[in-house]
Fold:
Amino acid sequence: MKIIGVIPARYASTRFPGKPLADICGKPMIWWVYQQVKKVKELNEVYVATDDIKIRSELEKYQIPVVMTRDNHPDHISRVHEVSDIKKADMYVCINGDEPLIDPVSIATVIENAKAKKTPAYYGAFRYLTDPAETIDPAKIKVLTTEDGRLIYISRTPIPYPKNSLLFKYKKYVGIECYHKETLDFFVTHPMGKVEKIEDIDHLRFIENQYPLYFTEVQSESISVDTPKDLEKVRKIISERKN
Structure:
């Protein structure tokens, strides 16, 4: 089975322009993500998918493989779909380009879960939240699953609402996603739904069309760099690890 890792990297982020090239201890953030991803032995190839010449030029300095994609993709899944039209494989693993602390073991765990189930579906990852600030932060996406990991709902608000009990832990989406080609094709051939437009979460397109999504728990300490404050946290952690 051929499995390709894809790291989408967009320069023109509305909340954090130029984020993939943000400096972390002398290297751009996307460099740190790639270093983690390439450690995953289950991946035959790893590419950064970008539409920006500045990102490509920076990556070429470090001899990181790049696939140039269109500049009009509305979301990262569509960008991965374009890569799937260019690079043929049995499975595509999308790793968010803003998680420089992503754990290679976590990526491998999601891949193994996807390989075990075999059927075309979306396979993702979650970790349990321990920081109350993350729980209420709308930039940190929360997931609600059944006992066997099938996604019930995904939201920017804490779900479920703790009306009758506080004896549970919230689950946070982690930026690891496994796709079969059929799953990517399904996404781009279905229009954005009403709930997806409201929440601004791409994965809701699958839910609104009753397409199966499965999430696996990972023991991850990864931090999504959504804001400059998040970047400072990551810089501190990586600096401490280096020293």
Summary: The first helix runs from residue 29 to 37. The radius of gyration is 17 Å. The longest strand covers residues 171-179. The chain has a mean pLDDT of 94.
